[in-house]
Amino acid sequence: xxELLKAAKLARTKAYAPYSHFFVGAAVRxxxxxxxxxxxIENASYGLTNCAERTAIFKAVSEGETQLTALAVIxxxxxxxxxxxxxxxxxxxxxxxTVLMANTGGKTCTVSSEQLLPWGFSKTDLxxxxxxxx
Length: 134
Description:
This protein is α+β, with helices and mostly antiparallel strands. The protein is 26% helix and 23% strand.
């Protein structure tokens, strides 16, 4: 996890946060062992902002790696920074089992994705095929 945290710290330096000035970095490890990084990217239309966690995950997926194992996220916050609800859902979608949350002051907290999102929505919640469409 130390390698992931180091990568997340570096990714944080690339954050585009001219509005909030809240710089976040994330790194996710694929089953292959490769690490993908991401930072938060803000937009003047705030709803179009993308979080560091999703940037890293989407980068991994866009490069063909959908089996992801662990994620680290870091920000300059009083306590270890936690992923937002949207990121928690994406973390669950790709089966990431371990999430390391950290702050730039050296505090960390490691949790499971189940602890982050105990009742997450998944493909098992989707209805089966309608008989009229088979």
